[in-house]
Amino acid sequence: MARSRFIKDTGLTARMTLVMFLLGALFVALMVALMAIAGRAGGGGLVVIVGLVGIGMAFYQWWSSDKVAMRAMRAREVSPQEAPELHGMIDRLCALADMPKPRVGIADMSMPNAFATGRSPERAVVCVTTGILRTLDAEELEAVLAHELSHVAHRDVLVMTAASSAGIVAGMLTNGAQYGGFALSRSRNSNAGIAFVLALVVSLVVYAISFFLTRLLSRYRELCADRSGVYLTMKPAALASALQKISGDMARIPQRDLRANAAMNAFFIAPAVSGISFSQLTSTHPSLEQRLEQLARIQAELDRPVG
Length: 307
What we know:
Elements: H1 10-41, H2 44-63, H3 65-72, E1 75-77, H4 84-97, E2 103-107, E3 114-117, E4 125-129, H5 130-135, H6 138-154, H7 156-186, H8 192-233, H9 236-250, H10 255-260, H11 288-303
Parallel strand pairs: 2-4
Antiparallel strand pairs: 1-2, 3-4
């Protein structure tokens, strides 16, 4: 992780390393399998081309992740003159954590939320919505910002961006396999049908595994950021209150607005969902109850008399 005063989490580091290794191995296996399948049907070159294009797009998303996320949220970078209180909070937290200050952004939307993104601490941006600025008081907002800065310091923003980009490659390879299968079937190649089905199955299996791997990492990183953030501010109750307010206000946001921002769920402090029950396997975040229980344990620990 980046050098800072945020508590180190060897569990997060181990999980990030394992997820990236497994995803890399999965996609090497995917490429080899698709090339072998398409080669038997006479279309191996197409898989290579599609794979290279997919990797190029994933690299672009990783390299420009801060710009992509800001555009997706219709957010803009703000100066200290435009948002002095927000910059002041982040200045104090960065000094407390002994870490570089990220850029600061604001998204003009009623949904109360915040996120951090960027390929490195030097390229990071922490963004909040106007909705969260109206919803939270100063202590609660500071707790949310500490949570987001923890993501930056631990570099899990980078890993999640790279892991999420892996889905682009799998999706493009699946589409390439479909295109190749249709093209080969028109040429009446007897192996085309079998090659198409096998390629589709292999691609979908790899995509499903990568989907669940990133969800497992995402849930752990949120608990880690909660924990690291409140140990920095020493105010677990403030983050607990913020999470409850955010979750409560989410129910008042129109469903169309929540769906429009669902692609950013893995990066939000709280998922843009309301009135929908997600299984633990597919959720990007731990349950609110689980997060509040962890914060209550930390509060009890901090309240315990020394000695």
